[in-house]
Amino acid sequence: TTQAEKHGFQTEVKQLLQLMIHSLYSNKEIFLRELVSNASDAADKLRFKALENDALLETDADLHVRVSVNKDANTITISDNGIGMTRDEVMTNLGTIAKSGTKEFISQLSGDQSKDSRLIGQFGVGFYSAFIVADNVTVRTRAAGADKAHGVEWKSAGDGEFTVADIEKTARGTDIILHLKDEAKEFADEWKLRQIINTYSDHLSIPVQMYKEPTPESEGPDGETVPATPGEWETINSGQALWTRDKSEISDDEYKEFYKTVAHDFDEPLLWSHNKVEGKHEYTSLLYVPKRAPWDLWNRDSQKGIKLYVQRVFIMDDAEQFMPTYLRFVKGLIDSNDLPLNVSREILQDNRISRSMRSASTKKVLSMLSKLAKNEPEEYAQFWDNFGQVLKEGPAEDQGNVEKIASLLRFASSHGDSAEQRVSLDDYIARMADNQDKIYYIVADSYAAAKNNPALEIFRKKGIEVLLLSDRIDEWLMSHLHDYNEKSFQSVTRGDLDLGDMDDEASKKAHEETEKAFEGTVERFTKALGEQVKSVRVTHRLTDSPACIVTDENDMSTQMAKLMEAAGQ
Ligand code: ADP
Ligand code: MG
Questions:
Q1: Rounded CA separation 461/72 (Å)
Q2: What gap in Å lies between CA 329 and CA 296, rounded to an integer?
Q3: Predicted local confidence at residue 140, as pLDDT
Q4: Which ligand is nearest to the CA of 102?
Q5: In which residue ranges of the chain is pLDDT below 50?
Q6: What spacing in Å lies between the alpha carbon of 127 and ligand 2's midpoint?
Q7: Ligand nearest to the CA of 304
Q8: How far is the CA of 37 from the centre of ligand 2 (A)?
């Protein structure tokens, strides 16, 4: 061992450690899920790398995770023979947080324990969760392919600093040794650990083992001889990847626990869909919709979501090719039988197989949401409040599924009296007047502004419903929605509003007369406003207000103009 080198944690790590220890106080046992899942990831990574270079497996191809307890020393050790880490990797992985947006995330934390624990749960506490139960953590690791002299030892008390030293380590992989805090001594207990592993890690495909002590030869109840058993490492999880099992054999609880591991979420999922697809392409997908929006939903770049496996071998995280951006909240995995094991992100980008899996998975998610909307409207409303804004990106991104996405949209409307977005286009159409052929809407800065816009007066008078849109994205959405169910969309603040057949003869005549009567006024207005406006017209839309501003059919709407201005255009 060389002299240990002292380093400080990145500021964000220090802050996260403080907040985490404080807010995950009542969720202590998740440290084991995180550390075992890291060990399992390490095995997955090694298996993948060994496809190209099987020398990496050395003489130790039997990948596993071992958990052991030393009651006297008050320690737990989680040991794997996976990919291991080099010194540089140790420095980055266990000294910094690589996730983009971490600073913003931390600044959102409030100090309110229950609220923060939910947020931190979604952020994914990972390795640092060791410090929930440990006052000292030692990591001893050696990277696959490195010489045994190039082991690394990392130590920290979680108080802002860590040390790194070179060590000799014969066995490939990583040992994590936790020295338990007084208030976490309960975890120095074999049975307790077994129970936790069964709950959280049963579905992992890697064997998770604990040591079974040898028993000496003994005498049975009927005087027979019970043979001695040797001490051995016993596999305590079922060791079969959950998604490879038959749907009918998987309980809801198992699906839920599995979700928590793939999604790094404390909460249960809202819904899921597990599909074995046979035929032209063979693959299995397991797709989840979370209950709540993740901390980085608005970061379009950080698309954590779908893990890719090929023939049960883990290939990559965040395979963005399998889900469109507007469904980036979907978590889960795809396990393909057809893709080559050496598939890369570049290959996936332009690949018939991945395109077909993407399109089928997209449809799956949309139909799973349709079902929810139909059968559990209240849960759907909750989904909408969390993810509706993201779904609204859909029509622009996915022309092929516009109709389906449109049926999932929810709006506030002049029919009700609430800013909540609960009205579907089908609801709207069902309430349309017999001779109405358009879906009327308005986009404004706020619900109140939409609701009180003078352009709505004529609609109120005629009893025609208007959708009230006021989210930032709505203008963008409406510029990509042209019709739904053969009804076209019509902004009530645009152009010459033609209420078509809905105006009766008498009122048409009255309109003409008014226009004549005001010819002179219009002329004076036009002169006075000059270049500032395109034209001045007599309108029949207003019943109570004297005037309103509209845009031409083909011009940018006022709302879009504001958006462009905000974007610096
Ligand atoms: P995540 O697993 O989400 O990447 P973690 O905080 O759990 O985040 O782990 C950080 C990183 O540390 C991992 O991405 C991995 O590179 C490394 N790491 C942690 N545990 C192990 C391990 N047992 N073997 C190899 N690398 C590990
Ligand atoms: Mg992890």
A1: 82
A2: 10
A3: 98
A4: 1
A5: none
A6: 6
A7: 1
A8: 6
Q: What angle do CA 238, 243, 245 make, to 5 degrees?
A: 60
| pLDDT tens digits, 459-514 | 998 899 999 999 999 999 999 999 999 999 999 987 666 665 566 666 677 777 77
DSSP bridge partners of 350:
none
Q: How far apart are CA 353 and CA 224, in angstroms?
A: 62
The amino acid present at 187, given as its one-letter code, is F
Please tell me whether 38 is known to bind a ligand. yes
Prediction pTM value: 0.75
pLDDT at 313: 83
Residue 122 labeled ligand binder: yes
Pocket of ligand 1 (CB under 6 A): 34, 38-39, 41-42, 80, 82-85, 93, 124, 126-127, 174
Angle at 296 between CA 357 and CA 12, to 5 degrees: 130
**Gap from CA of 175 to ligand 2 centroid (Å):** 15
ipTM: 0.99
**Neighbouring residues of 66: CB distance < 8 A, sequence distance ≥ 6:** 77, 78, 79, 80, 208, 209, 210, 211, 233
Q: How far is the CA of 349 from the CAs of 246, 305, 308, 319, 429, in angstroms?
A: 31, 16, 13, 10, 39
Cα 39 to ligand 1 centroid, rounded to whole Å: 8
158 is in an annotated binding site: no
